[in-house]
Amino acid sequence: MEKIKMNTPLVEMDGDEMTRILWKIIKDELIYPYIDLKSVYYDLGLENRNATNDQVTIDSANANKKYGVAVKCATITPNAARMTEYNLKEMWKSPNGTIRAILDGTVFRTPITVKGIEPYVRSWKKPITIARHAYGDVYKNAEIDVPGPGKAELVFTGSDGSEIREPIFEFKGPGVLQGMHNLDSSIESFARSCFNYALDTKQELWFASKDTISKKYDHTFKDIFQEIFDAEYKEKFDAAGITYFYTLIDDAVARVMKSEGGFIWACKNYDGDVMSDMVSSAFGSLAMMTSVLVSPDGNYEYEAAHGTVQRHYYKHLKGEETSTNSVATIFAWTGALRKRGELDGIAALEQFADHMEQAVISTIESGKMTKDLALITSLEHVTVLNSEEFIKAVREAYDAICAKG
Ligand code: NAP
Ligand code: MG
After folding, report:
1. Residue 288 lies in a domain
2. Mutate which of 18, 71, 309, 314 for ligand 1 pocket (most atoms within 8 A of beta carbon)
3. For a substitution probing ligand 1, which of 49, 308, 387 has the most ligand atoms within 8 Å of its CB?
4. What is the mean pLDDT of the chain?
5. 222-262: per-residue pLDDT in tens?
6. Which of 131, 154, 179 is the last residue of a domain?
7. Rounded to an integer, what distance in angstroms lies between the CA atom of residue 279 and that of residue 261?
8. Structural domain that includes position 161
């Protein structure tokens, strides 16, 4: 069979540990045999980030901006233990944080659903996508341990010297204080990324905050979303037959639990942190969660939501067999290739992505899966495959789909 040709290269960001091992097998078994892959390769493995003083991460993000679509392998975010393990010059920042800051994007996380891995919430029939605002709030806060009695105030000093003061509390004894911020520009980007992604995937968009209690802070989020929706997106949503819907966060949680799924749930930073873990575990497995960073000007970076699966990597290094789930990493590749196909008008690439995803799903539904899924499946006759066997089984399923035409 002739390999599918590409016009514009994909930005490829390689990574660390077990996912780096899977990365190579996926390319050798599922990509190279079928696609004449054009990619610009960046090695974001921790050794190379250290060797380039993390310049490689910045270069890869700029390439993502230039070419539009990237696929990323999971990477180590260094901590104290990694400093000694990799003999690092510095505790380099999270690559995802760096890329997100350069692309100014929002992260959308969607579970991959298959028969045999049932959501714990009975009403959920379709995936729920969480869009998490990735800037500010409690993640960039300032805190004080209040030692004893005294007055707490919120003070803003304008660059012209003007001052705004707001009393917070008169402490009679010890306590705690917290100050946080966000930016109109960041909230606007978040809103546009969400509206664009809803149009892209033809799904409803929900957004929630606590504007009844937080009459300035959360209310600003609500207002910005509504203003941008009315001015720029209302007509496009009508044409696509989808809706935008705002409600209070507690009402949203209640509705989500009773819903069928099949929508995007936009969350403020903290809500998104908490709710994405809830949604992914309720759908079954972190190893079945995809993630895409979408910038407001239409650049995309696809990856798996899980990390480098360190524990499996150490087993692999000792020569022991692993059964690591490659599904989310395969879907990162198909997501990126489908988007490349869409942008460049290459139908064969989009079809490749559809068929490869079908191959993954039919492999699992036929009872062949990795150990993590075997532990939670409701299917009865299950064959547990090792990391490489699973990918090879997907290749067989893909060939069978293509043979059928
Ligand atoms: P992790 O790599 O997601 O793994 C946590 C545990 O979840 C694993 O030990 C494994 O459980 C299970 N698991 C996750 N993905 C799996 C898969 N594909 N197949 C089978 N089981 C899977 O998280 P972590 O161990 O906390 O972090 C490891 C490294 O990843 C850290 O250095 C962290 O900085 C990095 N990280 C990177 C990203 C990213 O690049 N986007 C995201 C998160 C973490 P069992 O051990 O019980 O089998
Ligand atoms: Mg979290």
Report:
1. no
2. 309
3. 308
4. 95
5. 999 999 999 999 999 999 999 999 999 999 999 999 999 99
6. 179
7. 11
8. 143-179
